[in-house]
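hey
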């Protein structure tokens, strides 16, 4: 599972669409789908994570890093 899959899974849980996230955060249409196989800028990953109420680490890796 990659970052796009995790975002889409959370979207289903919150009953929202990736397009909703893109609009709310001012990203271009289809931005989330274009992340597949690419390195995601941390600033954008953090904004998505904040909106979905998870950590950027979770979106990036699928696990929470303990401090």
């Amino acid at each position: 599972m990659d970052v796009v899959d995790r975002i889409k899974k959370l979207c289903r849980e919150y009953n929202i669409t990736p397009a909703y996230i893109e609009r709310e955060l001012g990203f271009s249409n289809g931005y989330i789908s274009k992340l597949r196989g690419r390195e995601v800028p941390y600033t954008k990953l953090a904004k998505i994570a904040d909106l979905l109420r998870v950590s950027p680490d979770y979106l990036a890796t699928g696990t929470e890093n303990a401090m």
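Helices lie at 3-14, 18-25, 42-52, 56-61. The radius of gyration is 11 Å.
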